[in-house]
Design a protein that fits this description.
Length: 676
């Protein structure tokens, strides 16, 4: 192996990194320069991908955790032919493909958006789980490695605890993670915040840990080769690297290891750009170039990849020919086609809690959808994702045929794993916990939304009616918060999330079908712990009527020329139906509408919206969340009765009384509102 050639190519990347950050007048050169040796070795010698087909399903995946090291990734990908020098020159500029932190772009070799430290490597765990799961169904023809790159920040983020535990517990030997250990972070040296023994920590989680000089291509190659041989455990390669490798000041003294090089152009950090470029073997007057030696290295790899990929494709074709049914199934997975599911077969009983109705749908899904992983953060029997579990079994070390992942008590890790499963491709993924703990998952849901990943989030125990567990367990402001995602569009200009709070079991079925059919963004399901009365159905077919949910909101109790529209979702709708009946007896005509998704309703035509909420009619909203939950729905003359405090510990019927969620109190609220 020609170490000099590899170091030269890494130096080439370092020069490009320094130039990019300098030109952009912002960015993170230090860590990027130190990590370039590993990334260069990986891309020029080991990562298996098809240069002609970036989406080739069996490619190795590379997940970058520290997105601030984007210039390192863009630099290496430029050598691999995925970015042009002109595109590197546009680093961090409006409309460029080289944004400050990488944004998912598989065509260019970017497998994940990264920036929030910690999440990137957990997505890699998800990808590794998806790969093992698919190998269990289809065999080695779909196997590949998942590589992750993590830095001090990711190692310190709490989420790494969950990822380390789960990957080690599952023995994900197809996962190889490089830890760029450069002893420096954003504002301090690493030894100012921790004295942990990282190697021992990962070993304790059942990882294969290898420690190497992270600047030495020979040592890095050996480590990657060893990791590739590992059959039982995930591997952590701790690479001791050098922050701002090669950076020097005007007088030639070293600036390596300086905290100041973390997040600003080298010139601002105290180094000299021209001297640094020179020190790295580059030409300060011509920094923007790919050296002939680097081009040769990557051209040779391209040739190697051609034959590696051709052999893999040949083996795949032979397998497909011998196993046409399996091959067709795999194709349907990759294309994201859903099997035929007759949702009317959902085993509903009268007046179910929506979490129980969800369990019934999940049970049906488990029977039909073989490429779906459902997970729970140790609440499966409470968030009722066990409806799915009962029809399958859990993933365990050495047996990846189960469709259920016991994530343990690690909500954020679980969610980031779901993102990784979807990023891998060919899979559906859902995860559950109590709605109140969605707080632990928001940064990940945000990344699902940004990356347009259709993860299904199942949140139960959706309001103060959690009851005796008290205010720590009672979500109040959560629906208003999560619905903000419905008001925001993603980078494709579409809604960034679909948030559904069904009002009864039939609506839960409709909402689950919508969730499964939604391939464009995450879906959040907000479900009740307590039983809910089935809503009335004028047609006699409540399930058919519940598909009004497809429009986000629809009339459940119609009234001709109503005096008032009563608007709610979830558990509040059946209460309003009763109130409407009582108002009717007093000569007040109330039309009740259910709004499982406010965002989706607001996206409907004005005509449709007026048919549900006629323009001149007063609107009374009821919510067990903050009143502002319903504000985006309100127009004209309106009032919302909601919840403006933390909840309380007591049986939920008592809480209904105390907080005024009774027929009598809501009646009088409405009458007072109409009298105004
Ligand atoms: C969740 C999260 N918190 C904070 C930050 C801001 N931030 C960016 S890099 C960094 C620390 C970087 O240290 P390290 O990971 O060692 O990178 P290096 O300095 O070696 O480049 C921080 C705190 C972030 N991106 N994500
Ligand atoms: Mg560091």
């Amino acid at each position: 192996m020609d170490s000099t050639k590899l170091t030269k190519a890494a130096d080439n990347v370092r020069v490009l990194i320094a130039a990019m950050v300098e030109k952009a007048k912002s960015g993170h050169p230090g860590g990027s320069m130190g990590g370039a040796d590993f990334t260069n070795v990986l891309y020029s010698k080991y990562l298996v991908y098809d240069p002609e087909d970036p989406r080739w399903f069996c490619r190795d995946r590379f997940f970058l955790d520290p997105g601030h090291m984007s210039p390192m990734l863009y630099g290496v990908l430029a050598l691999a032919g995925k970015f042009s020098i002109d595109e590197l020159k546009e680093f961090r500029q409006w409309g460029s493909v080289t944004s400050g932190h990488p944004e998912l772009d598989v065509e260019r070799g970017i497998e994940n958006s990264s920036g929030p430290l910690g999440q990137g490597h957990v997505m890699a765990v998800g990808s590794a789980i998806a790969e093992r799961f698919l190998v269990a169904q289809f065999g080695e023809v779909v196997s590949h490695k998942t590589y992750a790159f993590i830095s001090d920040g990711g190692i310190q983020e709490e989420i790494s605890q969950g990822a380390g535990r789960i990957a080690g517990y599952l023995g994900l030997s197809n996962l190889i993670m490089f830890y760029d250990s450069n002893d420096v972070q954003l504002s301090t040296k690493v030894n100012e915040v921790t004295c942990e023994d990282t190697a021992a920590k990962y070993r304790a989680w059942n990882w294969n840990v290898i420690e190497v000089d992270g600047s030495n291509p020979q040592a890095l190659s050996s480590a990657i080769e060893l990791a590739n041989l590992e059959k039982e455990r995930p591997t952590l390669i701790i690479g001791h690297t050098i922050m701002a490798k090669g950076a020097v000041a005007a007088d030639g003294t070293s600036c390596e290891g300086w905290v100041s090089t973390h997040g600003q152009p080298l010139s601002k950090a105290g180094a000299d750009l021209a001297k640094t470029v020179e020190n790295l073997g580059g030409d300060p007057d011509d920094m923007w170039k790919i050296y002939d030696e680097s081009a040769e290295l990557y051209a040779a790899r391209r040739e190697e990849l051609k034959s590696i990929v051709a052999a893999r494709r040949e083996a795949f074709d032979a397998w497909a020919k011998a196993n046409p049914e399996l091959a067709a199934k795999l194709e349907s997975y990759i294309e994201g086609r859903l099997p035929e599911i007759d949702y009317t077969k959902t085993a509903l009983k009268p007046n179910m809690a929506t979490r129980s109705a969800s369990a019934a749908v999940l049970s049906l899904l488990a029977e039909h959808v073989d490429n779906m992983i459902v997970s729970s953060a140790d609440l499966a029997n409470s968030d009722k994702t066990d409806g799915f579990l009962k029809k399958t079994h859990a993933l365990v070390r050495g047996d990846y045929s189960g469709k259920f992942l016991h994530a343990g008590v690690a909500e954020m890790t679980m969610a980031a794993i779901m993102n990784g499963i979807i990023l891998h491709g060919g899979m559906h993924a859902a995860c559950g916990t109590f709605f109140v703990f969605s707080d632990y998952m928001k940064p990940v849901i945000r990344m699902s939304a940004l990356m347009e990943l259709p993860v299904k989030y199942v949140f139960t125990h959706d309001a103060f009616r959690v009851g005796e567990d008290g205010p720590t367990h009672q979500p109040v402001e959560h629906e208003a918060q999560i619905r903000l995602m419905e008001q925001m569009s993603n980078l494709s200009g579409k809604p960034s999330a679909l948030v559904l709070r069904p009002a009864d079991s039939a609506e839960t079925v409709a909402c689950w079908q919508m969730a499964m059919e939604n391939k464009e963004c995450p879906t959040v399901m907000i479900l009740s712990r307590q039983d809910l009365e089935d809503l009335p159905a004028a047609s006699g077919d409540r399930l058919a009527e519940a598909y009004g949910a497809r429009k986000g909101g629809y009339v459940v109790c119609p009234a001709e020329n109503p005096d008032v529209v009563l608007a709610a979702n979830g558990s509040e709708v059946s209460l309003l139906c009763k109130v409407a009946e009582a108002l009717g007896a007093k000569g007040i005509k109330a039309q009740v509408a259910s709004f499982p998704s406010i965002g989706l309703f607001n996206a409907q035509s004005e005509d449709y919206r007026n048919s549900v909420m006629p323009a001149s009619v007063k609107v009374f909203g009821l919510t067990a969340g903050l009143p502002s939950t319903l504000y985006p729905l309100m127009k004209g003359d309106w009032k919302v009765y909601g919840f403006e405090r933390f909840g309380a510990s007591a049986p939920y019927k008592v809480l209904d009384e105390k907080f005024g969620f009774t027929e009598a109190n809501i009646m009088s609220e409405i009458e007072a509102f109409l009298a105004k």
